[in-house]
Design brief:
By secondary structure, the chain is mainly α. β1, α1 (20-35) and β2 form a beta-alpha-beta unit. It has four domains: 7-84 and 211-282, Rossmann fold; 89-208, 3-Layer(aba) Sandwich (Rossmann fold), CATH 3.40.50.620; 296-354; 363-449, Arc Repressor Mutant, subunit A, CATH 1.10.10. The longest helix is centred in the N-terminal third of the chain and has 16 residues, at 20-35. The protein is elongated and about 100 Å long. Strands 1-2-3 form a three-stranded parallel β-sheet. It has a three-stranded antiparallel β-sheet with strand order 4-5-8. The chain has a two-stranded antiparallel sheet with strand order 6-7. The protein has helices at residues 20-35, 54-67, 90-102, 162-172, 188-197, 228-233, 238-246, 261-267, 282-295, 298-311, 316-323, 325-335, 342-348, 350-353, 356-361, 369-380, 387-399, 406-418, 426-433, 435-444; strands at 7-10, 39-42, 73-74, 106-109, 112-115, 125-127, 131-133, 151-154, 177-181, 204-208, 211-212, 278-279. The structure holds glutamic acid (GLU).
């Protein structure tokens, strides 16, 4: 395979949305293509006409786009080796089946065409991830019988089977590396027999480890969201999802865990993929997402959070008109590192957009307003509204009162401005919100005249 361009493919069946396993497979193919400056191809395996739909095809493609997995050839991108939908390649499959019939390597059984498996053939292969896999064709013998299991290649309804179509397509599309889930390992020897029968070179195989839930059972609905889209809707960033999926069964070799797409493509090595099943760990995803949110450019972070504020019915546009976009971007910069997802961050920072949620959360019950008033008077008497000065004035005030503690005053201030027990430094919040807005909120609670 020296000097030949690396060509890999993702070959989903459009019978459901892009799930975690599919996204993972697509991503590893993408990484290998980009690492080698090769080609990434999207082929749609829609021979199951009853279960395949164009809608699913669309959702799979938009899921890939969301993850940032662009493809160079295939459905939606064109290319020299199309068509890229199996349902549009039926004649091709028929032609090669005829060849196998003519050479005596296949036979008819009614309308179906069956590939003959001969005994005594070594169909072992070396998987890039799993290493040497030894198989003899006799291993395909039917249970409790000396009859070899032949391989149906064309069903009686005229549709090709997976194990057959995949070989024809991978060969004609000049695929150099077949990268797919480990559940396909047992199919590989059958496919090798068909390559050989047609006199074709066998590509390299790299099977990817299974993805398990935390209980070490195969990932399923029981473990939570299984489709890539559900994570988008929960407020995970595509960059984080990409980063997280890349680490399922692969590591860069050092402790580096947070990377961008180009960094991952540069570092990726198929030979470093582990065969040990990978565990889908939400805590890790949350950590990765938080790191990516932290590192974002403020304007981009704002664009990620905004839809969640709007969905919550907050007047984002009015605030932007009144105070400029920069106000909300700055607010989120203050929030950096808080909130695991964009959605959570939007909830933690809602008070910057509106006072309404604050009022819902806090009613100042049991507050000794008379004790607090002189404190706030002192703050509002300051000539400027800067956090350093606000904090200094607060400290001076507290130390002038016997037994008083900073938190006795800072907490009511925090509650009145944010309605929350935790927030970024409250004087920084106050400075950014501005004197007028703070005054409005404090006077609503009767803390300032
Ligand atoms: N359509 C098959 C699947 O979704 C493709 C397997 C392969 O990559 O060969 O499992």
């Amino acid at each position: 395979m020296i000097n030949s361009e690396v060509r890999v493919r993702f070959a989903p069946s459009p019978t459901g949305a892009l799930h975690i396993g599919g996204g993972h497979t697509a991503l590893f193919n993408w990484l290998w293509a980009r690492h080698n400056h090769g080609k990434f191809i999207l082929r749609i395996e829609d021979t199951d006409l009853e279960r395949s739909t164009k809608e699913y095809e669309q959702t799979i493609m938009s899921g890939m786009e969301w993850l940032g997995l662009d493809w160079d050839e295939g459905v939606g991108a064109g290319g020299d080796y199309g068509p890229y939908r199996q349902s549009e390649r039926l004649e091709i499959y028929r032609d090669y089946a005829e060849k196998l019939l003519a050479s005596g390597q296949a036979y008819r059984d009614g309308e179906a065409i069956i590939f003959k498996v001969l005994p005594g053939q070594d169909i072992s292969f070396k998987d890039i991830v799993y290493g040497q896999i030894d198989v003899m064709s006799d291993g395909l013998r039917e249970k409790d019988s000396d009859k070899l299991k032949d391989i149906v290649i064309i069903n009686s309804d005229g549709m090709p089977t997976y194990n057959y179509a995949v070989v024809i397509d991978d060969h004609l599309m000049k695929i150099t590396h077949v990268i797919r889930g480990e559940d396909h390992i047992s199919n590989t020897p059958k496919q090798i027999l068909i390559y050989r029968a047609l006199g074709w070179e066998v590509p390299e195989f790299a099977h990817l480890p299974m993805i398990l839930g935390k209980d070490r059972k195969k990932l399923s609905k029981r473990h939570g969201a299984t489709s890539v889209y559900e994570y988008r809707d929960m407020g995970y960033m595509p960059d984080s999802m990409f980063n997280f999926l890349a680490l399922l069964g692969w590591s860069a070799g050092d402790d580096k865990e947070i990377f961008t797409r180009p960094e991952a493509a540069e570092l990726f090595e198929l030979s470093r993929v582990t065969r040990k099943a990978a565990v889908f760990d939400m805590d890790k995803l949350n950590y990765i997402n938080q790191e990516h949110l932290k590192a974002l450019d403020p304007a981009v972070r704002l664009s990620m959070i905004k839809p969640f504020w709007i969905e919550a019915g907050l007047p984002v546009e009015e605030v932007e008109k009144e105070r400029g976009e920069n106000y909300l971007a700055q607010a989120l910069t203050l929030m950096a590192g808080r909130g695991k997802t964009a959605k959570e961050m939007s909830e933690f920072a809602d008070y910057f957009v509106s006072f309404e949620p604050v009022k819902k959360r806090w009613n100042a019950e049991g507050l000794d307003k008379e004790k607090l008033k002189p404190f706030f008077e002192k703050l509002f008497a300051l000539p400027t509204w800067k956090h350093e000065e606000l904090e200094q004035a607060a400290r001076d005030f507290v130390s002038s009162i016997e037994g008083a503690k900073m938190k006795d005053y800072a907490m009511p201030l925090r509650f009145a401005l944010t309605g929350m027990k935790v927030s970024p430094g409250i004087f920084e919040v106050a400075e950014l919100m501005g004197r007028e807005e703070c005054k409005k909120r404090l006077s609503f609670y009767g803390l300032i005249a």
